[in-house]
Amino acid sequence: MDWRVKGIIQKVLGALPGGHALHFHLQRRFGGLRDFDGELASKVDDWEIMVGHLRDAGIVLPGVRAFEIGTGWYPTFPFACYLAGAARVTTYDLNPHLRMDLTLQCADILGGFLPRIATAAGVPLAEVEKRHRALVERLRTGADLGVATGGVIAYRAPADATRSLLPDGDVDVVFSNSVLEHVPPEVIDAMYAESMRVLSPRGVMFHSVNCGDHYAYVDRNVHQLNYLRYSDEEWQRWNNAFLYQNRLRAHWFVDGARRHGFDIDLDTRTTREERMKQLAAMPVHPQFADVPAEQLCITSVDFIARKPASTTAG
């Protein structure tokens, strides 16, 4: 599909009564939810990567208090953290997208990943299996996330992650996966400030950001730098409620955390030769002229930002 057609369709759906429900059904039939098993497996891969990075930073999942930004349609990361022994996972979403049919399907499919979850978290497989059995049984009786996980997962939606109402120093980890690229920059700044407040001393933020043009996933004729051709005004023709893309470059997310007083423990930004060639072969809008090509072409970053021990959130 031509990416511009998709953008216009999504923009129209966003303005229609019932457009959100229709968009979901289109995703189930033609979009990313068409292969739910594959989509979920990819999320488990991402979760394992996060757990590995957190472990390297001295954060282990058993007993951890976590705060997720951006729940989505089904709670893969919160479920995996619960199965791994997290003490608490509070997950916030601006809109109540969570669907219980997909949530139960997610829990069922995670049964095939229990050894990987146990190994990644460094916990006995028997404990993970026991928690999984209880989770699925409770969900099948109609329990919500809190009841199904024995109070470990708290789902909040609609909710504002910039005003979480969590106490100061209440969590050890704030995390998101492929979320920040869909958030306006001023809101990201507010999220960073709130994270600094709710994190315990030496607590961390982990964010995995996919900051390439997401339309490249549906149109093989364009690549992940394509949207850099356009000014902000031009880009608004295709930006929409279902696929808002802020087009911020990878360094902005890391530098923003540093501006808010975080120490950067991990920064996976990598300039790839293929992206440099793609960038050199295309026109780039002058509004990006102040960004060096080596930074402009980066389309993903995982980073860990740590709250210093001496910082007191105001």
TrEMBL record:
Keywords: Methyltransferase, Transferase
KW Metal-binding (keyword) present: no
Signal sequence bounds: none
Top-level taxon in the UniProt lineage: Bacteria
Stretches assigned to the Methyltransferase type domain: 159-206
Metal-binding keyword on record: no
UniProt-recorded name of the protein: Methyltransferase domain-containing protein
Gene3D superfamilies listed in its UniProt record: Vaccinia Virus protein VP39
Biological process annotations from GO: methylation
Organism whose genome encodes this protein: Pseudoxanthomonas mexicana
GO molecular function: methyltransferase activity
